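To: structure desk
From: M.T.
Subject: fold request, one chain
Message: Could you run this one when you get a chance? Sequence is below, nothing fancy, just the single chain.
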Amino acid sequence: MDAIWCLRGGYGMMRILDGIDYEALSRKPKAIIGYSDITAFHAAVQRKCGLVTYHGPTAREELTEFSRDSMRRAVIGQTDSCGVAPNAREINAGAAEGRLVGGNLAVLASLCGTPFAADLTDGILILEDINEPVYRIDRLLQQLRLSGALNGCKAIAFGECTNSPDDADGAGRQFDQVLSELAHGLGIPCLAGIPVGHIAEQWTIPLGAIARLDTSKRALTVTAYKS
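Reply: Done. Structure tokens follow.
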């Protein structure tokens, strides 16, 4: 077996994290592909095994040529699977190099305080979510900040926050404002609107690989699959 390509994201991944044989996976590494709640699997494998895993489309999705090309470059070619995102928004200017980490924001926050929490140190933090209003996005980001998970984080690249309702009880604060406050407070570069998340055309992100984020170029470039 060469890979574990998850059929879907969704509830339940965290329930089995403490039953996975991480030593066996370390002995015979396999490509692990998926997103959304599969973020818990990615975080656990990186914490326990230090392997590169792939935040990318699930196996039941019909791949667009864009998504298929990015997945092929990441999983098979181990070359740069990202690139320029012309529609991305520069939230806090700058450039940084680090290890690609992250995934679904709600899942990352829920892992705080567990043995499987993602190690975001020296990382370019990739984020996405769905069906979360802005005030809850703010709460989740603040949970990561207050837990210390963002200490040493090098940069943030937020993908899509799909189907995000209007910010009820959020005093009219906008998504970019919330993200800007966090990035400026941490003093790190931040880009929003990269093609990652619950969308048809998405990059496959090799979590654990080394990359460079340049907000002025709206670019995320994978530079190495081994540190």
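Reply (cont.): The two ends are 25 Å apart (CA to CA). Let me know if you need anything else for the meeting.
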